[in-house]
Design brief:
Blueprint: H1 2-34, H2 47-94, H3 104-138, E1 149-150, H4 151-168, E2 172-176, E3 183-184, H5 188-205, E4 211-219, E5 222-229, H6 236-239, H7 259-269, E6 273-278, E7 284-291
Parallel strand pairs: 2-4
Antiparallel strand pairs: 1-3, 4-5, 5-7, 6-7
Helix pairs in contact: 1-2, 2-3, 3-7, 4-5, 5-7
Length: about 300
């Protein structure tokens, strides 16, 4: 019996020695999958496993460095292009009075492309900032937890802002205030940007004469900020792709395909999520599930 107990103790110790590095590898793989810059996996165990763990750590460092360089390249390139683009825009505007009638069509096409280029650069810069916030939160460096915003107040203000655009295009834009008046753990600027992305998309793509509804309501320990419409909506396969970068619908010739990607990163930077669903009224529903503020009355 004593010998059997000794064998069990040795077997358990050997098993722990073999499995401990595998547990560290599992954690490192999970961190890498979620984009978290966690500590490297512990190099221990048998020689073959130590070689494999060291190779994995090297690979993860290379991948992380490559992604960081890519993010900095997008931000730096977008920022550096703003000044020469502004100079081109200034020169193009001064030419308007000197363009002959035969060249007016070409001139308008050129200025429209300049508008699109300027919008794309602004969206790329916003995406880079949102990704930086999201990445900082994943590694525990975020400093946004102290900010909170009452959502009904922002909803009313953004609905009033977009109302002239909605009326011009024949849409009906309404809001449904909640009696609880929930507050989210985000800055007011971030909430405004989330709403602007969703309302702008609804006005552009929901179809003519639609009703767009904006609301906020508590959902357990979170709060849902919802923008829905009764328009044409999206097919199921497009619902899964609509928040990916540079995705645009078949009939979208003016968008950049970055709005919902930016909104996703902003929400993730505060511990929230974005979901695209089919609205009960038949169109598209964009649900921002955001952390509930500690001082919220809900």
């Amino acid at each position: 019996i004593g010998l059997l107990a000794l064998v069990v103790v040795i077997a358990r110790s050997l098993t722990r020695w073999l499995l401990r590095p595998l547990t560290g590898l599992e954690r490192a793989v999970a961190d890498m999958t979620e984009g978290v810059a966690g500590p490297p996996a512990d190099v221990s165990g048998p020689p073959e496993l130590r070689h494999f763990t060291a190779a994995f750590n090297t690979m993860s460092q290379v991948v992380r460095a490559s992604l960081d360089r890519q993010g900095r390249l997008v931000a730096d390139a977008s920022h550096q292009l703003r000044n020469p683009l502004a100079a081109v825009r200034l020169r193009a505007d001064t030419l308007e009075d000197f363009v002959a009638d035969a060249g007016q069509s070409t001139y308008r096409s050129m200025t429209a492309e300049l508008d699109r280029f300027e919008n794309l650069l602004q969206q790329l810069l916003a995406l880079a900032r949102a990704e930086q916030l999201s990445g900082s939160r994943k590694v525990g460096l975020t400093t946004t937890a102290a900010e909170s915003t009452e959502l009904d107040d922002v909803v009313r203000e953004r609905v009033a802002f977009w109302q002239p655009v909605a009326e011009r295009d024949g849409h009906r834009l309404i809001s449904h205030p909640d009696r609880c008046r929930p507050a989210a753990q985000l800055s007011r600027q971030d909430v405004e940007q989330l709403l602007d992305v969703a309302i702008d998309n609804a006005l552009r793509y929901s179809g003519p004469g639609t009703t767009i509804t904006v609301s906020a309501a508590p959902a357990g320990g979170s709060v849902d900020l919802v923008v829905s419409d009764d328009g044409t909506g999206l097919p199921e396969e497009d619902l899964r792709r609509a928040a990916t970068r540079f995705w645009r619908g078949n009939n979208d010739g003016a968008g950049t395909g970055l709005g919902l990607a930016i909104a996703t990163e902003i929400a993730a930077g505060h511990g929230g999520t974005v979901a695209l669903e089919r609205a009960p009224e038949g169109g598209l529903l964009v649900r921002f599930r955001l952390p509930l503020a500690g001082d919220s009355p809900c």
